What does this fold into?
Amino acid sequence: MELESYRNFLAIIEAGSFTGAAECVHVAQPALSKQIRALENYFGAKLIITTRGSRQLILTEAGRILYQKAKYICSLEDLAKNEIDNVIGGAVGTLRISATNSRSALFISTSLKSFCQLYPKVTYEIYEGGIAEQAQQLLNGITELGILSVPITHEDSFEVLFQRREELSAVFHKDAVWLDRNTSAITLKELSEMPLSVSAGCCDILKKCCAESSLAPQILSISTTRNTALQWALEKTAVAIVPIEPNEYLREEFVTKKITDAQIDLFKTIVKVKDRPLSVIAQKFLKFYSQKRNSQQVCDLAKIFNNN
It folds into this structure.
């Protein structure tokens, strides 16, 4: 099956109609319909259902599977083209990264800014989202590297390249009524008497730690991102419970306290899909990261690069 058919199938789904896709890929609508029929004949399954009198497309279960795999198939062609361009023209291409919402800004300032100065012809695609979205982006081949702040789902499908320790911390507004400036740390028991805002990734971790101490936290808000959890603290409405890197600076209004009895190993990690080759640009970035950032390398980069 020609790659053009897969790309046009993706265009139809993403445009939401044959008409929209035809305008996008500059192929006549009858030709697109013919390609979809050829795909359905090839796979022996209905892929798209169109309802009479409605412009809406319904993706069948077989269509959903092909949509995910077609993304990966097309991404491999893009990857091959980028690598060939890299060989011909040096360090050019696109670095595609899945990043936790609250970590992308820090990652740009601590890593990508310097890498950009070293390789000015590289461009970046940064996809931000929760852990489930990051996993799908990586598995579908949309991105190559994931910057994660909580353990990933489908762990058997991923390989951890680097990890950087974080601490589960309580963040107060400097004028919060609950803040005790006489101590630099806090316990779960003390926090159980305060309204808490937590990021979704930390919620289960906090509940588990509290359950082990027979405590019930007063969770006011559970949010998708760390930034939103911190906003509750900024409004002096709650104490935010979020992962913090050692010596990480948030903002002048905040006071951060380590939770002393939260017995949990928490890491920010960089991961890739197991047994999937990396582009030349991704390899260059990982080499750069291993030299410039004080993170623990938990893989054999040379072996990974040699297996590409």
